[in-house]
Amino acid sequence: MSAAVTEAGAAEARAESRARIVGLIQSRGAIAVLVVAALAAGLVFPDFLHPGNLGDIVTAASFLGLVAIGQTFVVILGGFDLSVGSMVGLGTVLAAYAAPYGVLAALLLPMLVGLLVGLIDGLLIVRARMAPFIVTLAALLALKGLAVLLAGESLVIADPGLFGRLANGSWLGIGNLVVILLLAYALAALLLNRTRYGAAVFAIGGNEEAARMLGVRVERVKIATYCLSGTLAGLAGALLAAHLSSGLSSAGTGYELQSIAAAVIGGVLLTGGVGTMLGALSGVLLLGVIENVINQIGSLSAAYQGLASGAFLLLAVIVQSGLTRQRAA
Amino acid sequence: MFQRERQGSTGSARGRAVRRLSIAAAASMLAAPAAFAQQDTAGSAVVQSSSSASCTNPSPSHASLAGMVVGFSQSENEQNPFRAAETASVRSAARQAKVGRLLYTNANDSQAKQVADIESMIAQGAKAIIVAPLNATGLQPALEQAAAKNIPVVTIDRATAGTPCHDFITFLGSDFLVQGQRAADAMNKATGGQAKIVEIQGAYGNSVETQRTQGFADELKKYPGLTLVAAQTGNWSATDAQKVMEQLLLAHPDINALYSHADVMTLGAMRAIQQAGKTPGHDIKIVSIDGTKGLVQAIAEGNAQADVQTNPRFGPKAFAALKGWFNGDQVAQAQIMKDALYDDVADSKAALKSGATY
Q1: Residues of B in contact with A299 (CB under 8 A)
Q2: Which residues contact A262 (CB under 8 A, 6 or more apart)?
Q3: Closest approach of chain A CAs to the CA of B82, in angstroms?
Q4: Is the pLDDT of residue A57 over 60?
Q5: Are residues B219 and B155 in the same domain?
Q6: Residue B280 carries which DSSP code?
Q7: Domain hosting residue B238, numbered range
Q8: Last residue of a domain, one of B267, B294, B309
């Protein structure tokens, strides 16, 4: 009798430890891959681990990184936001228009418009019960058109001043964009893991009907999440405009899919309900490392970047589906 | 070659700048006779005219390009034949100059990546950089970093915002306005001065598109028999252009001429013309821009009338400018490439044979 109890207890403990390992791989796998990839790159290319180069990688990845925060919330919720890439482009254009009126205007205008776009997307998805894919695809097209109408190809910010330093300056030797990115991820992790809103996002992504029955205000949470995603895309656009001293209607093209890819590489489940901010950040940085390594090789066509990113994405999806089966077992 | 360059110049200041460049070009020509002979028959590595303003290195290092690490930042992927020919030209000129290492990056249509690319090449020790800018603006942080380290930057094919002599030492490129004008002249010749024309334009909001549209429209005023019936964008894409042409043919059955901003779109439009039961080059006269193999072949076969070249062979001139800069010579701030015009069967066949097309 007591032997049977201990046996059952042992089995339970085994299952528990297996679940813990599965969860660990899901949440920490991407950062392990990132560290290994960076160390390997450092062994092959001595310049790679130079602090200046590492700073450049994170700076270059910071715009996609901000977009990926919002995208991660949306994907955990069980949706997509395809409008973010165009919103970044529109954001750079709006920031370029607003820059003469001060730093605050240049930052807030794109964020406000992003918020508005998220609100419209969210309302259409929730109230009109339209598929997120279609709603945000329409926004992708419309925002791109709007950016071109407003700016043509590009606008120069003549005297970026403080606005330019916001993106290109540094703080204690660390680039401002690096600081902003890490800060944003830290806040996002708190929001996702330590608030009722974050819990609601997980609950809706896991099982929308169950969440509704538990009293989660599904509609509100969804709308808020698309608003968050739009606002962050607007912020990314504003910072990109500061970085480049320009508004570019073509900026951010492709970020919608790259941000989804980064999230998935980072262990966020496309079906919703599972994901971490650290994972998403690792996914973004891994894409940046691939980009930089291909530059270090110095003779490869950019097509290899797509090839390598695609391979990592596929690997992540294979591992994910394996883990999901493990968890179910 | 020397003669032709001088013909393109007027005014003494401009003449001086061009002569200086010619000396640099002549020097590298001696070093690499074969490559230049080939370029010369193609008639394409020649600078047509140059700006009178020039840049001179205040403290020339007289560094030799031989053995130097040089960076090349390409803007778009090389499925585009223009980009492929441009990269090939820079690579081949780098070999001719015997550079130690040519770092190559491709921004894949992302402005942020192009900035990061240039920064990473600087971090890898590039001492000179050639950039094909993706946009008319947006390279400032990278150009500033290069300037801070006294790394000369040559911009090619598209001008970008910045201070000449500080952010970049020269710009090499085609005059897209003149291309539009030459296309209108070619259209006049091809149609005998009587035509109802449709125009398929590049992607809106792009300076190349704007100038090719403007140049054509301006020059068209000279020819009262030529009327522009409709203009629409084909987004630099063959499939978009094919769709647009289908619609235009339905809406305007009486059109008999097509002006397209790019060969890739022209080839798409030609498929639509065929599908509508008309013969490209006969029922619809065709004038295009780019000078790619596919369209020059069509001219050789009588299926199109004229193609204004956009010369992608910047390599020799780019390295000549860098060499001049390191030696303390005057380098013209803007150098307009000479673009060929293919407008008859014999010329087109010769160009295909000599490898002038890309």
Answers
A1: 102-104
A2: A64, A68, A71, A280, A283, A284, A286, A287
A3: 15
A4: yes
A5: no
A6: B
A7: 176-309
A8: B309
Do residue B278 and residue B325 come from a single domain?
no
Do the chains contact at A302 and B112, CB–CB below 8 Å?
no
Is this complex scored with an ipTM above 0.85?
no
- Collapsing DSSP to helix, strand or coil, B289 comes out as strand
Same domain, B131 and B186: no
**Per the CB < 8 Å rule, is A244 touching B106?**
no
Q: pLDDT (tens digit, 9 = 90+) per residue, A107-155?
A: 999 999 999 999 999 999 999 999 999 999 999 999 999 998 898 777 8
Query: For residue B113, is it within any domain?
Result: yes
Beta pairing, strands B54-56 & B330-332: antiparallel
Dig out the tokens for B350 from the structure: 């010769």
In this predicted structure, what is the pLDDT of residue B4?
A: 35
Question: Is any Cβ of chain A less than 8 angstroms from the Cβ of B163?
Answer: no
CA-based angle A147:A153:A158, to the nearest 5? 95
- What does the pLDDT read at residue A3? 59
Q: Which of A237, A310, A300, A313 is nearest to A63 (CA)?
A: A237
* Residue whose pair of structure tokens reads 């909001």 in the numeric block: B205
Same domain, B279 and B193: yes
Domain count, chain B: 2
Tokens, residue B265: 């779109």
Residue-wise pLDDT tens digits, B217-233: 999 999 999 999 999 99
The per-residue pLDDT of chain A, averaged, comes to: 90
pLDDT in tens, B20-61: 333 333 333 333 333 322 333 333 334 545 566 899 999 899
Question: Are B6 and B133 found together in one domain?
Answer: yes
Answer yes or no: is B37 within a domain: yes
Q: Are residues B272 and B319 in the same domain?
A: no
Q: Tell me, yes or no, whether B169 and B184 share the same domain.
A: no
Smallest CA–CA distance, residue B264 to chain A, in Å, is 21
Residue B180 sits in the same domain as residue B170: no
Answering whether pTM is above 0.95, one says no
